[in-house]
Amino acid sequence: MGLVACAACAYSYVAAGARPFTTAADVVTATAFAVLALVMGRSLVRRYRRTTSVRAAPHPQQSVLPWLVALGVLGAWELATYLAGFPQGRHAFPTLSSLSDIAFRWRAAKTACFAAWLAIGWGLVRR
Question: Which side of the chain, N or C, has fewer Cβ within a 10 Å radius?
Fold first, then answer.
């Protein structure tokens, strides 16, 4: 597990060095999402196989639905603020991404924030 933590910290440092709102930043973020999605999918398949062999499968929608609603609301908020500020620029209607970029101007702070984001995602996936 220590090797995974070291790799996550190194990846966070690389991700923090990516220039915001560029293809490189999108790629490092999407890569982290893809890895976590693969781990989550693998975990769900394992859990489903165990539960179907023992008893009826649980209803995963009951535990996933609140997270999907929260992600939908956050995504809608990001899109609305982005589109509302499109003609005037990001300063008129900043998105959460642009606000965090202003708050974390230093690479060390961005690295810590990205590593925390990875840790939270990993914790949610492993649950």
Answer: N
Residue 110: which of 22, 9, 12, 6 has the closest Cα? 12
C-alpha 61/C-alpha 11 separation (Å) is 32
Query: What amino acid occupies position 5?
Result: A
Q: What global pTM score does this model have?
A: 0.52
Domain carrying residue 112: 2-126
88: phi > 0 → left, psi -120 to 50 → alpha, else beta; which? Answer: alpha
CB-CB contact of 126 with 43 (8 Å): yes
Domain tally, the chain: 1
Is the Cβ–Cβ distance between 11 and 32 less than 8 Å? yes
In angstroms, rounded to a whole number, what is the distance separating the alpha carbons of residues 36 and 42? 10
CA distances from 127 to 50, 86, 118 (A): 16, 38, 14
Query: pLDDT tens digit string along 107-122?
Result: 888 888 888 888 888 7
